[in-house]
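lol ok so funny story. i was supposed to be doing the assay writeup but got distracted and ended up predicting the structure for this chain instead. priorities right. anyway since i did it might as well share w the group, maybe its usefull for someone
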Amino acid sequence: MKAFAILGKGKTGWVDIKPPVPGPLDVILRPTAICPCTSDIHIVDALPPEYAHIIGRPLGHEGIGVVEETGSEVKKFKVGDHVAGLGMFLDFRSDEAQAGLAQYDPFGSYPDRLYRYGGTFAEHIHVYDADANLALIPDNVNPIQAAMVTDMMATSFTQAEQANIQYGDSVAVLGIGPVGLMGICAARLKGAGRVLAIGSRRACFEKAELYGANDLINYKNGDLAQQVLEANHGPVDVVLVCGGTSSAIGDALKMVKFGGTISNVALFWGEDNTILPNQDWGYGCVQFKTITGTQVKGGSYFVKKLLNLISYGRVDPEPLASHIFHGFDKIEESYKTMSVKTPDLIKPVVLMEGLKL
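and the output, tada:
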């Protein structure tokens, strides 16, 4: 089958590989919509030596599809079902899963998934343990919306849960790409009062307003933490770090209150050290401010809940799709579009041939 793969550090291209064969618990999907992600770009550009085994494997971790083949023990799905899953297919039989931390099982990491099963940028997608990882897409949820569930919504809503946002909290969202924009939605649904959106591009600010941000702060207009403190008339309760460089953690520490929480989902690829300030931590003691990070929660239960939010009109992630491509062969163009990040870019989506919205 044809696939768009990683060919080496900084190198991608088309390959022909053997089509996947499902195990007893697995299904094979024909993709109907896929999205390139910044993580795809980063893993290609960085490609640490320990990831060398993924060379030649299909890229991609965001996508939805139609079931083409099922393993002998799959019970919830049949051929022809239109389904969505998350970017990582997890092993819910692992020790981590039994401890309630399925997303931290190394089996589910992006590099491991690429090596074992390949990614979503292929003519066929191999899904491990389908009953535990997939959910049916409701009839009133379109392919663009469903594709955004697989990472953009899933990441931000996991982050908002971990940040433990309370009713009326002030929440600064640092980095308002597609994950940060969904972070605004998640914060508001969790009960946030004031939401401050931090970015620099007009397209992102426009979407931030659409999703309910109260304040738009351009980090290029001066000291970031000071801008937030002035806009909020003091420190914020929560900071969601969704992008930027490692200095974002230091900025977050300066703008969050004593007893506040910083939740990070950004990956600082290629940076050796995270920059933290020498002061303003709270009497010199970091324990007065919590820094935490998370990977995406997995599982069909969580996917169903996110799809419900769309189906019942609580969230609409479709406006994230700033660039829409049609046809499997457009995957390469969409990947390059994501890597360039033009001023109008939010998120590219590739819809496969014959798909009607």
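The chain has eleven helices and 15 strands. Residues 145 and 317 are 6 Å apart (CA to CA).
back to the writeup now i swear
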